[in-house]
Specification:
The chain is of the alpha+beta class and 478 residues long. Helices cover 26% and strands 29% of the residues.
Length: 478
């Protein structure tokens, strides 16, 4: 009965019963390599691969980094020319870098129980080794990364015609670092031919070393050697490059300004400027921070109250704000136009309280008016802009007024001898010219004398001043 069942299974499923495990191997690996007089290698690998079962392709690892004697590494520059089969059909491939190797993933269509040939052509520079008395090529013919056996490996290496005299060669077989002698080698004129005398096993390879007299292959120029050295040790230069890059950025934008005097902090806006006006002076525009500062300033001065409220939601509670009017419009006489516009926009229609969420659909119109009125107020308070210019250069082209805050006794202490210093401060004398801004209301300063103002520029104060005077203190504050 059991024999009958076995025969029945063999009849119904013959392919499954006789199926063999998938495998592949390299039937032959042949290398054609020529060295041109400039030292560049033209390489062509012809690899015959025998497939058992269904496969999609193969991997090829080509070493592109060599260890130098003593210390350091040498980097080879590899450029692929073509990858095709023996019938001339171009094959699809992908390249990547893995450690000291350049990895090729080569797709081979129709690799099912057959033998297919892959031809890889590429050029390599910086491969020749230059010594004082000779030049040398040390080349790993097959590579040592194959996980399958190589039944036969061979190579033909062609040197420039002048290398025939004094040409010598040797080879090695086996795994990495081995010095096996399982090969045959012949030198004919400027051509070296070699091949293995046995198959190569798991991760075994064939390596050849060829030497020829000095002068047959032109060595690289001094500039080329310097560039190659720079590329080889670029990783060690990276910290230096990063350091100088950060130093340049710090030198241009990170240094503190060179100050010859100490800076006195100010805790209030200079003069009678509002926070939103100062924001426009700082960055040349009236943005959301400036309008928020305007709201807080109005609340601090008692014109409105800001109340934080909690609104219940389906999943989470949200935070909002409610604005309460504290003063009626009849008490707004001391406000500048953009402050009145802010309060009018908030409490339009005679409202005394308004929520923040209710302002979304209409308050944006008032914000645009507020921005324009802030710049109009700056033009009226500070030096006018040139005709046709935009408000953006306010921070660069406007000078803040510095008005005298101490009156009466301060003027008496200066006495008659201070008149010449006063004229110097007004631009009549001194080491550099001063710029006197608009006089306060109809040309009368706060001390009561017509046409006299105390002025200073934002960056530099003209004329000499006594260190203890009120004007000097204001100049330092700015």
């Amino acid at each position: 009965m059991r024999r009958f069942l076995a025969l029945l299974a063999l009849a119904l499923f013959p392919a499954t019963a006789l199926a063999q495990p998938k495998s592949w191997e390299i039937a032959s690996f042949h290398l054609d390599l020529s060295v041109d007089p400039a030292g560049t290698l033209d390489v062509r690998e012809t690899i015959a691969v025998r497939f058992v079962g269904s496969w999609n392709g193969i991997y090829r690892w080509i070493p592109v980094v060599e260890s130098k004697e003593g210390w350091g590494k040498k980097f080879l520059h590899l450029t692929v020319q073509e990858i095709r089969d023996d019938r001339g059909t171009m094959l699809k491939y992908e390249t990547s870098r893995e450690s000291d190797y350049k990895k090729f993933k080569i797709y081979i269509p129709g690799a099912i129980n057959t033998t297919r040939t892959v031809v890889i052509a590429y050029r390599v520079s910086n491969a020749v080794r230059y010594f004082d008395d000779h030049d040398e090529l040390y080349w790993n013919v097959t590579g040592n990364e194959w996980s399958v056996p190589i039944r036969r490996a061979s190579a033909i290496i062609t040197l420039p015609p002048g290398a025939a005299e004094g040409l010598r060669a040797t080879a090695y077989t086996g795994p990495y670092g081995a010095r096996g002698q399982d090969y045959r080698l012949a030198i004919t004129n400027n051509v070296v031919e070699l091949g293995t005398t046995r198959g190569l096993g798991y991760k075994e390879g064939l390596t050849v070393a060829v030497g020829w007299p000095k002068g047959v292959v032109a060595g690289p120029s001094a500039a080329a050697r310097a560039w190659a050295l720079l590329l080889e040790y670029a990783i060690f230069l990276l910290p230096v490059i990063v350091f100088f890059g950060y130093f340049l950025v710090w030198y241009r934008v990170g240094r503190d300004p060179g100050l010859t005097k100490s800076i006195m902090p100010r805790y209030e806006p200079p003069g009678d400027l509002r926070p939103s006006e100062l924001g426009a002076v700082v960055d040349g525009r009236v943005d959301q921070r400036d309008t928020s500062a305007l709201l807080v300033d109005l609340a601090v001065r008692g014109f409105l109250k800001i109340e934080e409220t909690k609104e219940s939601g389906w999943l989470f509670d949200s935070t909002s704000y409610t604005f309460h009017r504290k003063k009626t419009p009849s008490e707004w006489s001391g406000l500048v136009p953009f402050e009145r516009q802010m309060l009018d926009g908030l409490f339009s229609g005679g409202k005394s309280s308004v929520g923040l969420n209710s302002l979304k659909n209409h308050f944006y119109r008032d914000l645009e008016k507020i921005r324009k009125q802030v710049f109009a107020s700056l033009k009226a308070r500070l030096l006018p802009l040139q005709a046709g210019s935009s408000p953006r250069p306010v921070q660069h082209r406007l000078d803040l007024r510095v008005w005298r805050e101490r009156r009466g006794g301060d003027r008496q202490r200066r006495g008659a001898g201070s008149q010449s210093a006063l004229r110097q401060r007004r631009g009549g004398a001194g080491n550099h010219r001063g710029v006197c801004l608009q006089p306060d209301h109809a040309g009368v300063d706060r001390g009561g004398r017509p046409g006299e103002t105390r002025c200073a520029r934002l960056r530099r104060v003209s004329g000499p001043r006594r260190a203890g005077s009120a004007e000097a203190r204001h100049a330092r504050d700015l």
